[in-house]
Specification:
Layout lengths: L1 E6 L6 H10 L3 E4 H9 L6 H7 L4 E2 L3 E2 L1 H10 L3 H26 L4 E5 L14 E6 L2 H9 L6 H10 L3 H7 L2 E4 L4 H18 L2
Parallel strand pairs: 1-5, 1-6, 2-5, 6-7
Antiparallel strand pairs: 3-4
Helix pairs in contact: 2-5
Length: about 200
């Protein structure tokens, strides 16, 4: 089983690309989805976040992401506290996922992790795929989202490894600027290359 990290900065089309890999036969672990489950009512992250960030979570409704985000913007050192809570829980979810993918006979496992480089996880995979697009297109896509502002977008970019650096470190780059069919073709080429590597 070959383990591949899939990453890309905000607005690059990573989620759409991950769905294409799933259609092409890869088992895809979505780190954001795992976090959403941990943050939801009854999620394992709710209680420790409620203790560390009072007023940002409760057992009934889970973690209030808007309150937590606002608090973290005013106290950036809180990111480290949050990571110490969330990362071990995500690692456990991932381990369970690997077990299931292996039992189902998947040859390629994709870890869809937005902060793959930032969290040091790029060293733990067999190959890295970076989803990319030109900066202007990225900005247009992100600013078209509900509730997104220039300030919020810039704050997110500041926490992410620059796209050019990610591209330099990648084994494969998927360019999402030329439409879905073009991206799908690239995904199929990468899957073929990965399966050849694994033989």
């Amino acid at each position: 089983m070959i383990v591949v990290g899939l990453t890309g900065s905000i607005g690059m089309g990573k989620s759409t690309t991950a769905a294409m890999f799933a259609k092409a036969g890869a088992a895809v672990f979505d780190a954001d989805k795992a976090v959403a489950e941990l943050y939801g009512p009854g999620g394992a992250a709710v209680e420790p976040i409620a203790k560390a960030f009072p007023g940002c979570a409760d057992p009934e409704s889970g973690v209030d992401r808007a309150k937590l985000s606002a608090l973290l913007q005013s106290t950036p050192e809180g990111f480290e506290v949050l990571e110490h809570i969330v990362h071990p829980l995500v690692a456990q979810s991932r381990a369970n996922f690997f077990e299931k993918a292996d039992a189902e006979g998947h040859e390629v496992v994709i870890l869809d992790v937005p902060l793959l480089f930032e969290t040091g996880q790029a060293d733990q995979v067999d190959a890295v795929i970076v989803v990319s697009a030109p900066p202007q297109l990225q900005r247009e896509r992100v600013l078209a989202r509900d509730g997104m502002t220039e300030a919020k977008f810039n704050a997110i970019l500041d926490r992410q490894t620059p796209d050019s650096t990610k591209r330099d470190k990648a084994d494969f780059v998927i360019d999402t600027s030329q439409g879905l069919d073009h991206a799908r073709g690239q995904v199929e080429q990468v899957m073929t290359a990965l399966l050849e590597r694994d033989q």
